[in-house]
Design goal:
By secondary structure, this protein is α+β, with helices and mostly antiparallel strands. It has one domain: Alpha-Beta Plaits (2-Layer Sandwich), CATH 3.30.70.20. A 3-stranded antiparallel β-sheet has the order 8-1-9. Strand 2 and strand 3 form a beta hairpin.
């Protein structure tokens, strides 16, 4: 399965990826947050679309589902905004803020990917810090999977 990867050495913290996400998902909250590791390192954190998603298991409303392609998707009309997925996510990438009883969750731009395009955040990144690659192929590169350093990291805070 393809995932979005963040190369911290290339990220310039411009937030263009967040703007692209917001623009391409105008009907809901943006799903890319930013965090800070010390004062000099800022990076985006993005849903990892886990093999065994803790958010899916924690949802009492069955509002999070794993699609055939491996994407973990929130079903907007089933979400009651209870926040169980936010608490269960070990990477802290599901925003705890509830708007209209729907919690933000990256859908990996499923419609764009089906058309053979990259997710909006990857396409928009001016520094080339975000890539959309097979998880198995990226393991040898020196990149961090989106969201691997998040709010649960002792030196990391949201900005």
């Amino acid at each position: 399965m393809k995932k979005v990867f963040v190369n911290m050495d290339k990220c310039i913290a411009c937030r263009t990826c967040s703007a692209a996400c917001d623009y391409s998902h105008w009907d809901r909250r943006p799903t890319i947050g930013y965090g800070e590791l010390r004062e000099d390192v800022r990076l985006p954190f993005i849903c990892r679309h886990c093999e065994e998603p803790a958010c899916l298991e924690a949802c009492p409303q069955n509002a999070i589902r794993k699609l055939d392609g491996g994407e973990v998707k929130r079903m907007n009309m089933l979400c009651t905004g209870c926040g169980s997925c936010t608490i269960a996510c070990p990477f802290g990438v599901i925003e705890p803020v509830v708007k209209s009883y729907v919690i933000s969750k990256c859908d990996l731009c499923a419609a764009r990917v089906e058309e053979g395009k990259e997710p909006a955040c990857v396409r928009a990144c001016p520094a080339g810090a975000l890539t959309f690659e097979e998880a198995d192929e990226i393991a040898e590169k020196s990149v961090v999977v989106g969201a691997s350093m998040t709010g649960r990291h002792p030196f990391f805070r949201r900005v």
